[in-house]
Amino acid sequence: MTEAPHAVLVVDDEPQLRHLLRTTLAAEGFRVVEAETARRALIEAASHKPDLVILDLGLPDADGGTVVSGIREWSTMPIVVLSALWLAETFAHEFPALALVEKDKQGAAARAAA
To answer: For the chain, which domains are there?
Structure first.
């Protein structure tokens, strides 16, 4: 069996959402790497060099800005922020080049904003 050609790093502290994204992305042929903390996200990003990061801003050990800043020190890989609207909109002012997807109160992706 060959390895999927493109990798996605999913960073979220909600196991159900990570499972949903992993299942959906794997079904589309992507290799999925997961992290539930900012610290782990930076390790996985450096180790696996994913083609895309899907990032929740509300992580237990640091905010998503720490992850973005850490990755931006060495890479321009695309980062899609998947987070609560109020947090995502505030964050968009600091990092305007990121794609944003709002999570509803149940943690599901509700709408996208570019």
So the answer is: 7-113 (3.40.50.2300)
Q: How far apart are CA 17 and CA 21, in angstroms?
A: 6
Assigned token pair, 91: 């964050």
Alpha carbons 2 and 11: distance in angstroms, whole number: 25
Locate 71 and state its tokens: 């990755």
Which of the residues in the chain have pLDDT under 50? Answer: 107-114
**Are 54 and 82 a contacting pair, CB within 8 Å?**
yes
User: Chain-centre distance of CA 101, in angstroms?
Assistant: 10
Work out the burial of residue 3: count CB atoms within 10 Å of its CB; fewer than 13 is exposed, 13-18 middle, 19 or more buried.
exposed
The span from the CA of 9 to the CA of 54, in Å, is 6
C-alpha to C-alpha distance for 32 and 88, rounded to whole angstroms: 23
